[in-house]
Amino acid sequence: MTSGTTEIADRSIGDLAGDIAAGRLSPVEIVESCLRRIEQTDGHLHAFLDLWADDARADAKRAETEIRQGRLRGPLHGIPVGLKDLVEVRGRITTAGTPSFRSRRSEITADVVERLVEAGAILMGKLHLVEFAFGGWGTNPAFGMPWNPWDLDTHRMPGGSSSGSAVAVAAGMVPAAIGSDTGGSIRGPASMTGIVGLKPTVGRVSTYGVFPLSQTLDSVGPMTRTVEDAAIMFEVLQGPSIRARDTRGVPPAAPLAGLRQPVTGLRVGLVPDRQLGGVQPDVRAAVHQAVEVLRALGAEVVEFPLPKAPIEYGPASSRITSTEAYANLRQYMGVEGVPSGEGVRKRILLGDWGSASDYAELLAERRRQIALFDQAAEGFDALLLPTTPITAPPFASIEEDVMPLCDFARMANYLGLCSLALPCGFDRSGLPVSLQIVGPAFGEDRILRLGWAYEQAAGWHLHRPDLSRLTAAHASG
User: Fold this and answer.
1) What pLDDT digit, counting tens, does each position of 51-69 carry?
2) Domain extent at residue 56
3) HEC string of 198-221?
4) Is 161 tagged catalytic?
5) Facing residues of 422 across strands?
6) Catalytic annotation, pick one of 12, 161, 165, 219
7) What is the domain-level CATH number for residue 426?
8) How confident is the model at residue 474 (pLDDT cuts 50, 70, 90)?
9) Active site residue 165
């Protein structure tokens, strides 16, 4: 691993934006640095499905001209961003990870894309994902699986379904990417690749124009290298949309304004080890060390047993996802080769299980569980637990239908919470470990504040995977 890199492609949005505003760096230089990194590493890492190099260069020149004329739009102006390939951009191919969509051109543009463009971000292209975003490991039989950049010799799992988004950010191909999260699909890949991932509360960020898996549980959010960058992205992405009913009436968030406020006095619940079975010892130790850092910063961290163990919320969450996925995707199931992955096919077909009244009762039970949780968690600002119970395993060792990466993540989707994953150390093999900070509905400001304070004190965000072998091989080849 490396740390303290000064290469443009490895720097944070906040750092790059400061230099752009001061005239020390141009969007053209940033885009060219990212394109060089992609050229050097993506042949091995396999993050991009569709790279828009020419358009990115043109957009960077346009941004450079605007900024020189004094029309700086904000901290994302001139910053490259990648898109998970279920985010629609009018006229572009959106595959949703399935080969039958190779020629499917989008007829609409997602709200999140419109907000990024309005903020001046440079769209770099589309990134790999699990087929239909329905899987936690990152596999895709048709398009292949990105390579976790923390081990260049062994093909390790990048996490899914936002696999390409995580790898692109971790490897410095882009400073930020858009992911989606229905049961951990932002946070699992963030954990596996040592980056930051924010799953917003449903209703914070419009999902209009994002290929749907589960309307009840889908959320869209940023994947970045620092908590501040996640806050910058989130502040641009969030807000009401006339095309997304669930965003209307949601109070606006302003995470950057309070990001650096002390965390003294915040009351944080630590999910006890007895409710977290199967956690690797290195993961458990890193999370407990993170707890001590937050205590030293002034947060009041106390043990908080949940009404149910996190994994116990999983079956109901999965049932909702499968039911709604079947409703959304059954029209494609009769097409030959769709889905291409047998694991995804099985998960979709699990949604064909009962009657309308059964589904209604499933949603009613979710409302009851949300009420029980909210009552138990009253007075807490956030909860702490591992993002995933394990670090990135080799591809050869995994079972497609067993997905422990989601064990501690589904709870936040099912209970309507927000959640932040951020690096908190490494295991003895040098693979990233991740802390999960879960907040109440619409509590993104608080979890970002806690995450930023921890990040600054611990410094794990400064570490990068060592890609020198790939860059050197490209230079010599």
Assistant:
1) 999 999 999 999 999 999 9
2) 2-476
3) EECCECCECCCCECCCCCCCCEEE
4) yes
5) 435
6) 161
7) 3.90.1300.10
8) confident
9) no
